[in-house]
Amino acid sequence: MANAKVKLNLRGINQLMTSREATSAVVRAAKRIQQNAGPDFEVNVVPHRYTARAYVRPANIEGAVAEAKDKKLTRAVHGAR
Q: Which helix (H) or strand (E) holds 65?
């Protein structure tokens, strides 16, 4: 078996992970989850130095209660795949 040496271009990976296309894909996925969860949840896009990030969280107390009692957001994540 041959040994192969791999050197990652971290600067290039970071550029790819924060690109407009990657950010759009992450935001689209977060919006699908939010739509499945309902109007009591919101998408929060948080810029990061190395990756595209977006969170779905309860927008109000009703959303927090729906997640606590019925796992509405958790189920929405699984349904958005």
A: helix 61-70
H helix runs in 1-81, sequence order: 10-17, 20-37, 61-70, 72-79
Q: How far is CA 29 from CA 17, 36, 54, 57, in A?
A: 15, 11, 9, 14
Instruction: Give me the residue spans of the domains in the chain.
Output: 10-79
Does the pLDDT at position 1 exceed 80?
no
Length of the chain: 81
* pLDDT of 24: 95
Spatial separation of the C-alpha atoms in residues 33 and 42, rounded to whole Å: 9
**What is the reported pLDDT for 37?**
95
